[in-house]
Amino acid sequence: MSSILQSSMTECHPASVPDFTPVQQLRDLQLRRLRSVVARTWQHVELFRSRMDELGITPDDIRSLEDIAKLPFTKKTDLRDTYPFGLFASPMKDIVRLHASSGTTGKPIVVSYTQEDLNVWTSVLVRALAGCGLHRGDIIQVAYGYGLFTGGLGAHYGAEALGATVVPSSGGHADRQIMLMRDFGVTAMCCTPTYFLHLIDRAAELGIDMKKLPLRAGVFGAEPWTESIRQHIESGSNIEAFDIYGLSEIIGPGVGCECQRHTGLHIFEDHFYPEIIDPDTGAPLPDGCEGELVLTTLSKQAMPMIRYRTRDITTILPGQCECGRTLRRIGRIGRRSDDMLIIRGVNVFPSQIETALLQTEGTLPHYQILLTRVQGLDQLEVQVEVTPEMFNDKIGALQELHQKLQGSLDRVLGIRVRVSLVEANSIERSEGKAKRVIDRRTS
Ligand SMILES: [Zn+2]
């Protein structure tokens, strides 16, 4: 990277410097931290120690980064099984924050932070937002939910530490969100991509042209989204849309983020070590191969995660980004292995449906997948909103669109699905993560 860029990054955002650490130096740091976190977890977390014992290994067996493959995986069920505090490696007196998943089924999962963990979390968010070109002087509205969910508070402290002005609007109340955006001159939004699409629509209904607002960037995460959604967002609002990645089990938002090149998401790998594995065998795969993302927290104190299986399917992209960051990148996450629907024996991912729908002119980025079972046979119906112009047009145009969508879905999925075109605004909007799949199959 050029020294000019480095010096300007240093001036603006001192915390951005680790992004440009020479590769060997970064690997050395990762190994030091890996050895230390493994030793610490082995010492304090019963479940991890017993799994190491079963494998006949001790922390001393970790002598290189490749040795990480010897370590046991951690799964989401481990967090549930040890609810609430079974995986903590710090005593409660050192823990300053707890977060938890919403827990729609059964017990939630609980995650914890020491003050040092919160500092790391804030620092990676600063680096993420700086990588999106945001800085002091920006007015950042955080419309992720505040509370037990990590999205709101994570983005909040990052944006504040960046030196930006934070508008902590939290989720919901679309009209108020839009009023704040306009009246406060908000320059960047943090929320889920589907919620932002909803705000674009609602602003139009209120007669507010989002393209005329000072808003110039959106940092969107907490759900997988496709390039088609990015195009809808950018054309509907004239902003630059960035993909940010994270999960509470690892730290919350800020595990990785796109830079202004938009060629994958840089993982802040001085804190989170990424691997790609074959989801069926658990074998490590080389960079460039698609598989399940596994993350190890290298510096986390309160609740270290060793080889956590994220269920997110992606690739570690080979080569270095043109921005000069030495941090490796992952491809955008289009699907999670547990999102997979099995319809009449065929594997179907909602992201395949989304891409097929939104690449067709005349559709809106609002759709829903309905699963039912009729006489023992799975039925898949895709409902998608179409533009008002389409509905006002002659019936022929609708029929043509219907055929086009039917054809492309049949081709992509390899099974027959039912396509229903519905009017704009007829699918329920979400204030957070979109509910795309409604499964009414009963066994
Ligand atoms: Zn980059």
Relevant terms:
2 domains; about 35% helix; about 450 residues; 13-stranded mixed beta sheet; GMP Synthetase, Chain A, domain 3; alpha/beta; Rossmann fold; single chain; four-stranded mixed beta sheet
What does this structure look like?
This protein is of the alpha/beta class and 443 residues long. It has 2 domains: 1-336, 3-Layer(aba) Sandwich (Rossmann fold), CATH 3.40.50; 340-439, GMP Synthetase, Chain A, domain 3. Helices cover 33% and strands 25% of the residues. It contains 12 helices and 21 strands. It has helices spanning 3-12, 23-44, 46-55, 76-81, 115-131, 150-162, 174-183, 193-205, 227-237, 350-358, 388-392, 395-413; strands at residues 95-100, 110-114, 139-142, 165-167, 188-191, 217-220, 240-247, 252-258, 265-267, 272-277, 284-285, 290-297, 308-317, 329-330, 335-336, 341-343, 346-348, 363-374, 377-386, 418-422, 437-439. The strands form 4 sheets. Strands 3, 4, 5, 6, 7, 8, 9, 10, 11, 12, 13, 14 and 15 form a 13-stranded mixed β-sheet that branches. Helix 5 (115-131) packs across helix 6 and helix 7 crosses helix 8 (193-205). The model is unreliable at 1-15 (pLDDT under 50). The protein binds zinc ion.
